[in-house]
Amino acid sequence: MADMKTSYMGLELRNPLIVASCSLVNSVEGVQRCADAGAGAVVLKSLFEEQIEADTKEIQKHVWLAGHTEAYDYVRQIGLQTGEQDYLNLVESAKKAVSVPVIASLNCITPEWWTDYAGRLEASGADGIELNMAILPSDPRHSSNDIEKLYYDILEGVKKNVKIPVAVKIGPYFTSLATVGRQLCSRGASALVLFNRFYQLDINIDKLTLVPGYHFSTPEEINVSLRWISLLAGRIDCDLSATTGVHDATGVVKQLLAGASTVQVCSTLYKHGIGHLSNILSNLEAWMKKHHFESVSQFRGRLSQKESEMPELYERLQYVKSLVGIE
Ligand SMILES: Cc1cc2nc3c(=O)[nH]c(=O)nc-3n(C[C@H](O)[C@H](O)[C@H](O)COP(=O)(O)O)c2cc1C
Predict the structure, then answer these.
(1) Does 45 sit in the ligand 1 pocket, CB within 6 Å?
(2) Of 2, 80, 189, 226, which is most buried with the most CB atoms under 10 A?
(3) Would you say the CB of residue 266 lies under 6 angstroms from ligand 1?
């Protein structure tokens, strides 16, 4: 039996395969099924600010006082507490149900709401917190500095209130991703989760309406995170967790070779079922045996840029010769 033990944000995992935050892990049963199928850890579905806002609006409808600022604040507070309490209950019950680490996830777009709540999540037994920070830089008045500061403020606000490790899940769209990554780690992130896959927008040309784009990833989408994991591994002072486009053991092996501490999967579990986790793990083990690796640590990061004798290969952005004969 190969040794797949992995350390991730200071937590001990039996293997590096994590179920990414999604609706499959929005209930105790879902979490239990993932743990039974072999997951090394689970990241619970995010608690969304908008979701809490929606709860608040629902309550507001029934309160005639809602037009008054003070009353609104009071009502908003009740809304916050309702959504929050359900989530705390989920963390507590999930922790009781499984022995693998349970990481809570907060979808943060403003710093205000989460700082105190993070402390309550810690008290409810979460092993760690993943901050799902999806901020769309669509306002032309906001500079990249303003936006990056928001990421740092949210992280620092949460870190002030908890001792459990905090990971930050971001998208790839930063002017200087390496700098932002380094800043997040120096401000207390124990891990970076690369990369979130955002809600996709599409247009129906018959109805002339906006429609949701396709939710799930394809294996071809692995390349963006693979590049950045391989570039950042060993260069910034925190763990890296790979997400987007990992559908099978091949994807997991690639990300580990690039330097990921853990690999998160979601779309492939929607496609093949939660039981697919055990296939991925047994194929990972078979690959390790074939290559005579007894533990994950023997090959993690072997193909990161830091370990490479040809680091320039990792930075090639333009086709030079590879398309000769095709073009
Ligand atoms: C249906 C669905 C729900 C998701 N919900 C969340 C969420 O609540 N929080 C979050 O951080 N990511 C969420 N994600 C993103 C996944 O965690 C994951 O990062 C993304 O799907 C890329 O991984 P994949 O290629 O394995 O699907 C969701 C994805 C899907 C498909």
Answers:
(1) yes
(2) 189
(3) yes
Q: 192 CB contacts (<8 Å, ≥6 apart)? A: 167, 168, 169, 170, 181, 184, 185, 232, 236, 238, 239, 240, 241
Label residue 203 exposed, middle or buried (CB < 10 Å: 0-12, 13-18, 19+).
Answer: exposed
d(CA 227, CA 189): 21
- The SS3 assignment for 165 reads coil
Q: Which of 224, 226, 240, 237 is nearest to 182 (CA)?
A: 237
pLDDT for 66 = 37
Q: How far apart are CA 19 and CA 137, in angstroms?
A: 28
Domains of the chain: 6-315 (3.20.20.70)
Asked whether the predicted pLDDT for residue 273 surpasses 60, the reply is yes
Ligand 1 centre to CA of 267 (Å) is 7
CA-angle at 28, arms to 123 and 215, nearest 5°: 105
- The CA distances from residue 163 to 122, 127, 129, 240, in Å, are 8, 10, 10, 20
> Could you report the per-residue pLDDT of 185-227, keeping only the tens digit for each?
999 999 999 999 888 899 999 999 999 888 899 999 999 999 9
